[in-house]
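Below: protein 1.
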Amino acid sequence: MSSAIPTPSPLGTAPLSEPQRIIDTFIAPSKTVTDIKRNASWWVPWLLMSIVSFGLVYTVGAKVGWEQVNENQLRLSPKRQAQVENLPADQRERQMAIGVKVTQYIGYAFPLFILIGVAVIALVLMATLNFGAGAQVTFKHSMAVVMYAHIPGIVKSLLAIVSLVAGASPEGFTFQNPVATNLAGLFTPGSALYSLGLSLDVITIWVLIIEGIGFSVISGLKRSTTLGIVFGWYALITLISVGFAALMS
């Protein structure tokens, strides 16, 4: 958790409560980030995302089943799927059983992965802004900006929960694409184009825009500069993901 010591608010600006910071992240992100300059606490959005992720994982276990989830995930890696299918029956069953356990453990460890992922993103963006653009962003502020920026991700998880409860097909569920907020559905699962389609996601773009706005407020740099840095890194990661998918398909 952040140990940031709150600093006085700018003249005429009242400190925001945590619920206000959460709500403003959706409707007025600049207000949230301005308050982050006062207090760089980030644990509340992480806790909120963790609770929703546990809700999704529980729903997946109840409505899809971990064996089905593992089979769906395996289809996203055609080469790996072919290797497993060509194994002798006893070895194939053993591999599938291991895969089910690993998938289940990863699902329930999502809050930890969120924390690690946000920390890595915060570190990379902080370093890029400071060494590449001459800003003076601290890690605690970078961590808070990235954590709050990822709050819209709960919308995707909530939509996935509603979809599964409403009777969505278990055969179509994957954690990479729990609900159709992107263009991946237009392409063959596991292909390079499918990976590209995953990156063209409405929620993800929303998160990136909030990050760009947030780092502009925190650093004092032009919004076009911070948006360019955020989207530039995302484009690079997307290219790497597409290339890896091409190798595995």
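Below: protein 2.
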Amino acid sequence: MEKVVAVTNQKGGVGKTTTSINLSAGIALEGHKTLLVDLDPQANATVGAGIEPGSYKYAIHDVLEGRQKIESIILETPISNLHVAPSHIRLDKTEFLITPKTYKETFLYRAIKNLDYDFVIIDCRPALGTLTINALYACNFILVPCEMGRYALDGFSDLMNTIFEVKPGEEIGEIPIRILLTKFEIRNTRTNDWVMDQLSTYRNNIFDIKIRKNEALNQAHMVQQPIFTFQPGSTGAQDHLQLVKEFLSLCQTK
């Protein structure tokens, strides 16, 4: 398996699931076999990738609790090369059940380590609990969506501390972590300058592409499609296509 990407931010509403869906769909459309793992009990990534709620019997919680192999729960999506390991609200209980267990951080890693995929994209829940720690342990690339707003950086230092705890002994330059700025509006110059100033320590870890605020991205969720099939001519599709290209370019240099 070439790249396992944890898409994470404990702050909600920053575009985490939007990023997970469209990055994985875009990579798949480039011809790479891709698995989207929905590690959020809300299952928004599952639905957003085109899987109907209630249409599947097993989900990722069955894997983490040892009842199913991950191969048995993986579903095809309408996008060629894109598969989903779906989530379910019962995953919330699973996190509670596995938290006291020995090596609790390794459950997801052990489930996916022998899969035959070019890319695995993990959509994390907006919290720094056991599920997110599993994603961080399993991944070899960390993507942090960050909304362009006054409170965008709340908890960011906690996230960085958690990353270093899960992956000890690595400096910031050695960890493949990239920050993706979302909901960007060019006219908000003061806010943009403030956010960039706050992120100055991590300037070399910020994607060049910024995801502009675009209503089509919200509408795509409503119709359960990635932006590329819903409105391929939208700025949302253009920005995510550039994200895919930049991400794949980064992977080739690692």
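The domain at 3-253 is CATH 3.40.50.300 (Rossmann fold).
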